[in-house]
Amino acid sequence: QVQLVESGGGLVQAGASLRLSCAASGRTFSSYVMGWFRQAPGKEHEFVAAISRTGASTYYVDSVKGRFTISRHNPKNTVYLQMDSLKPEDTAVYYCAAGPIAYIGDYYTARKYDYWGQGTQVTVSS
Q1: What are the DSSP calls for 31-90, one per residue?
Q2: Torsion sign, CA atoms 76, 34, 115, 101
Q3: Pairing state of beta strands 115-116 and 78-83?
Q4: What is the pLDDT, as a whole number, of residue 52?
Q5: Per residue in 29-84, pLDDT tens?
Q6: Does the pLDDT value for residue 86 go beyond 90?
């Protein structure tokens, strides 16, 4: 069992930066692929970024490439999402997720993740 707690959301102006953190419980953090998803009102969960178990490989949705950076620190059981050059369309509730995913193609799929945090709101004003 893994419990995830996100923090770092807030209200910012377009062009600003935020760093989201997700702290995980348990001693098996390094065995999970970690992902960030977001959900805007009236929309489905959208994949944002994922990182491999060791942190050596990262994956992003096209709309955030070059602006967002996912990273992890396994000794601290924490995954981060650095968000730069924020846009109003980035407004959403952001969730971190953990999954024992073997196939890279599944990193982008919400249902492949077993554990989810409660979410943190990110609002970007224009």
Answers
A1: GSEEEEEEE-TTS--EEEEEE-SSSS-EEE-GGGTTTEEEEEEGGGTEEEEEE-S--GGG
A2: negative
A3: unpaired
A4: 97
A5: 999 999 999 999 899 999 999 999 999 999 999 999 999 999 999 999 999 999 99
A6: yes
DSSP string, 12-25: EETT--EEEEEEE-
Distance CA 59, CA 69 (A): 9
Task: Say whether pLDDT at 26 is over 90.
Answer: no
Q: Can you read off the two tokens belonging to residue 62?
A: 């096209």
Among the listed residues 90, 111, 15, the one whose alpha carbon sits nearest the alpha carbon of residue 48: 90
Q: Is the pLDDT of residue 27 over 80?
A: no
Measure the CA dihedral 60/123/77/59, to 10°: 0
Per the CB < 8 A criterion, the answer to whether 98 and 3 are in contact is no
> How long is the chain?
126
Do 37 and 94 contact (CB within 8 A), yes or no?
A: yes
The backbone region for 78, taken as left when phi is positive above 0, alpha when psi lies in -120 to 50, beta otherwise, is: beta
